[in-house]
């Protein structure tokens, strides 16, 4: 057994405590107040409202095909529920970029598994999670889940770079903030019936997207 000098041992323990404290400081719990779109939420944290962007994934933008499917899927998973947030970063909009869990389910990963979001290639760098998510994305594609019912759905990062869509993205971020909680009673909710995203999303049951 390797024995370290007393001073070195104290230093190692101190560094471990700092790392643990930093991880704990980044994690917090809150209640979902709004589902903004397929990868963004507004949470209540005490008396404050905090906007959270889901880390490592990218869902269809407002007015993009399958935007409603993505948003409805996320709403079904977390709407009005307590979630755990692990902050990874803060984006240019001031949102916390985070891993979000609901009763142990990693929502970022679940959206990819259900075919409601892509793994974001330029920003998903946490391993081994991102490699696992990419495998789940390939499985969703093979099984034609969610947006993968299309053979070649357009990734949102490509859609955003088209000049005609840049203004629509900003406008959508301002307007597309009403709560999208699925309706009860076994029928497609009002948002589903309206086809709000103009993409003819495929929705079944009580507003839950086809899996």
Task: Give a description of the structure.
The protein is α+β, with helices and mostly antiparallel strands and 211 residues long. It has one domain: OB fold (Dihydrolipoamide Acetyltransferase, E2P). Helices cover 36% and strands 24% of the residues. The chain is built from seven helices and ten strands. The strands form three sheets. The chain has a five-stranded mixed β-barrel with strand order 1-2-3-6-5. Strands 4-8 form a two-stranded antiparallel sheet. Strands 9-10 form a two-stranded antiparallel ribbon. A hairpin with a 2-residue loop joins strand 2 and strand 3. The longest helix is centred in the first third of the chain and has 21 residues, at 6-26. The radius of gyration is 19 Å and the shape is globular. The N and C termini lie far apart (53 Å).
Q: Percent of residues in beta strands?
A: 15-25%
Question: Whole-Å distance between the termini?
Answer: 53 Å
Biggest sheet: strands, sense, closure?
A: 5 strands, mixed, barrel
Structural class: alpha+beta
Please tell me the CATH architecture by its name.
Beta Barrel
Mean pLDDT, all residues: 79
* C-alpha geometry: globular
Number of domains: 1
**In order across it, which strands form the biggest sheet?**
1-2-3-6-5
Q: Helix segment count?
A: 7
Q: Any idea of the CATH class?
A: Mainly Beta
The helix content, as a percent range, equals 25-40%
Would you identify the regions where 5 or more consecutive residues have pLDDT less than 50? 8-22, 175-211
* Rg calc: 19 Å
The H-and-E topology, N to C, reads as: HEEEEHEEEHEHHHHEE
Number of strands: 10
The CATH topology is: OB fold (Dihydrolipoamide Acetyltransferase, E2P)
């Amino acid at each position: 057994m390797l024995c370290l000098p007393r001073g070195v041992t104290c230093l190692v323990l101190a560094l471990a405590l700092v790392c643990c404290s930093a991880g704990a400081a980044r994690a917090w719990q809150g209640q979902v107040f709004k589902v903004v779109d397929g990868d963004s939420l507004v949470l209540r944290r005490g008396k404050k409202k905090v906007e959270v962007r889901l880390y490592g994934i990218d869902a269809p933008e407002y007015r993009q095909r399958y935007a409603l499917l993505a948003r409805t899927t996320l709403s079904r998973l977390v709407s009005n529920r307590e979630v755990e947030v692990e902050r990874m970063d803060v984006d240019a909009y001031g949102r916390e970029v985070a891993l979000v869990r609901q009763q142990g389910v990693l929502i970022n990963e679940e959206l990819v598994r259900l075919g409601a979001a892509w793994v974001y290639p330029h920003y998903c760098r946490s391993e081994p999670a991102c490699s696992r998510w990419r495998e789940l994305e390939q499985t969703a594609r093979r099984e034609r889940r969610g947006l993968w019912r299309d053979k070649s759905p357009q990734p949102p990062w490509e859609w955003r770079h088209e000049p005609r869509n840049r203004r629509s993205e900003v406008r959508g971020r301002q307007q597309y903030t009403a709560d999208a909680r699925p309706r009860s009673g076994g029928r497609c909710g009002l948002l589903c019936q309206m086809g709000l995203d103009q993409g003819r999303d495929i929705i079944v049951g009580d507003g839950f997207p086809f899996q």
